[in-house]
Amino acid sequence: MQYRKQVRRVSLLLGLAMGLLVTGMSASAASPEKKWPAPNATFNLVAGYNPGGATDAIVRVSAPFMEKYLGIPVVVQNIPGSGGLVGTNSVFAGKADGYTAIYTATTDGIWSYKNLSPTSVPWQLSDWKGTGIFASMGTMGIVTTKKSPWKDFGDLIEAARSLPPKSITLASLGPGRLDDLWVIEIQETFGVKFNWVFYDGSSAIQTDLMTGDVQAAIIGVARSDFINHPNFRVLAGFVSEYPEGCPYKGVFPTMRDFEKRLGYKMESMPAMSVKPILSYIVKANIPDEAYKGISKAVKQMTEDPEWQEKIKALTWPTYIPPEETQAVFDSVNNAFIPYKEKHKEYVRR
């Protein structure tokens, strides 16, 4: 009798222990402890273009510094197509685990895609969050080759006015970028008409400039290697001025430099005056710990003197914290909205 009581007591204790174990395992499975970043993880920094262009260069300069401050390996992924939209859509379709960020800019970012893309996008602006703005300078402009008879932007416009419409082939990235609005504004402001063609990457544009397939192109010109470049000439940077200390100030002409000669005011070209910003964005639903970690790494990167010197060869460092970026993002989006319908009608012509 005593033996049976002991057996029942042992069985009861074993049952209770197993119940607690199963309950503990279920609770653990339901809410596992996840540390971010995981020690064996890799962080993907996405560029929406082929290697060799301005976007790729900016992302590759940032990668080792993001790796330094994230504490895990950072890999640059080039996902080209549709003026950067393919890369953005690819990131959106991926996991929201906090191990991916994509470069976005005023020229080729979520605002331009949302308003200007020929195809609808599978996301809303609210599906993205900025991790802080790390640069604020117009990096784009118009170039030709050193063999060209045009020495500056004024020469190009005067030639376009004197020739039959579409005599000059002008290349840009896209469609679906701010570049589209610039071409529209330039043609309407100066009464000219280019043979306008689109490319997926600036490296291909540079090749076709050299072969003569295109005569002028809108690409990233705020690059120190374009100063005294043996093959290319910057006709104008699409800015009103370059900041003090910038290596291009006084070297590359700006759009402001041609106001008197061509008879216009830059303020009459609102698309050309859209605030230039560069940022790394992430999906809005990534874990909060990941968002804070990425944002902190971006801030640390922008404070690093070595990064500041390297990035000045490509753009101008200007840090704006994450909590202030949404207001900037909204202002950029609002600048695009008035062009939405007109742009689509114009590009279809």
Q: What is this structure, in a nutshell?
A:
This protein has helices spanning about 1-30, 55-70, 85-95, 110-115, 155-160, 180-190, 200-210, 260, 290-305, 305-310, 320-335, 340-349, and strands spanning about 45, 75-80, 100-105, 130-135, 140-145, 170-175, 195-200, 215-220, 230-235, 280-285, 315-320. The chain is α/β, with parallel strands linked by helices.
Give structural notes.
By secondary structure, the protein is of the alpha/beta class. The chain folds into 2 domains: 43-136 and 275-348, Bordetella uptake gene, domain 1 (D-Maltodextrin-Binding Protein, domain 2, 3-Layer(aba) Sandwich), CATH 3.40.190; 140-273, D-Maltodextrin-Binding Protein, domain 2 (3-Layer(aba) Sandwich), CATH 3.40.190. Helices cover 42% and strands 17% of the residues. It contains 12 helices and 11 strands. It has helices spanning 2-30, 54-70, 85-93, 110-116, 153-162, 178-190, 202-211, 259-262, 288-303, 305-311, 322-336, 340-348; strands at 43-47, 74-78, 100-105, 128-135, 140-145, 169-173, 195-199, 216-220, 232-237, 278-283, 317-320. The protein has a 6-stranded mixed sheet, sandwiched between helices. Strands 7-6-8-5-9 form a 5-stranded mixed sheet, sandwiched between helices. Helix 2 (54-70) crosses helix 9 (288-303) and helix 4 runs parallel beside helix 11. The N and C termini lie far apart (97 Å). Residues 1-31 have low confidence and may be disordered.
